[in-house]
Amino acid sequence: QSYNVFKYSDIPFTNIVYLREIDEFNTHHWGLHKLLVMSRQDKPFVHIDLDLILLEQPKLYPNYDICFAENEWDFSNKNLHLVDENEIEFIWSKYVSNYNKYHKDNPLLKEVNFIRTPCYSYVEVNNPSIMKAVWNDMISLSKQLLNIDDNDLNQYLEEWVSYQLIKKFTNKIKHHDTIDWLLHDRHKKFGHV
């Protein structure tokens, strides 16, 4: 369906490729389909979710392997803020509890943390080989979860697990500081609907 939306649009694409593997990869977790498509790219690319509206052309960062526009949460030193119980409950229920339940003893996810997790609504990938390597590990980690219909698992796999894997393959990761974009209209660069 998405293919037809773009095929018959006025957007000036030079080429649209329909990846049949998406249909063959049977899972409730649409985030894994996104990662599958990313893993099949062989040139640098930018992924933009359909519910993300860019209000101006984004700046690209070719010196980084991967760039994320926003985070689901960020407790790194530069972004310290007062944390409320809703934020802690969100992180616990969607990420920490799933890690404890499914992957705590998995050697692929031994050295992990919950300091930051990016949102995958806008991702610039300048080193596609990383996403190929992430996908190979992701298949192993998600096999037992493919048929569990749980949106929390989808976010856990797409965002937190894949980010932990990305960090195994590179430290050249950029996280845009978009707090001003989100809070102050005059600085707004994008809107996430």
Give an overview of the whole structure.
With 193 residues, this protein is α+β, with helices and mostly antiparallel strands. 40% of the residues lie in helices and 14% in strands. The chain has seven helices and eight strands, in the order H-H-H-E-E-E-E-H-E-E-H-H-E-H-E. Strands 1-6-3-7 form a four-stranded mixed beta sheet, with no helix packed on it. Strands 2-8 form a two-stranded antiparallel ribbon.
Low-confidence stretches: 179-187
Distance between the termini: 20 Å
Number of helices: 7
Protein structure class: alpha+beta
Portion of residues in beta strands equals: 5-15%
Q: What is the H-and-E element order?
A: HHHEEEEHEEHHEHE
The largest sheet, given as strand count, sense and whether it forms a barrel, is:
4 strands, mixed
- Sequence of strands across the biggest β-sheet: 1-6-3-7
Mean of all residue-level pLDDT scores:
85
Number of strands: 8
Task: Please state the CA-atom Rg, rounded to the nearest Å.
Answer: 17 Å
What shape does the CA trace take? Answer: globular
Helix content: 40-55%
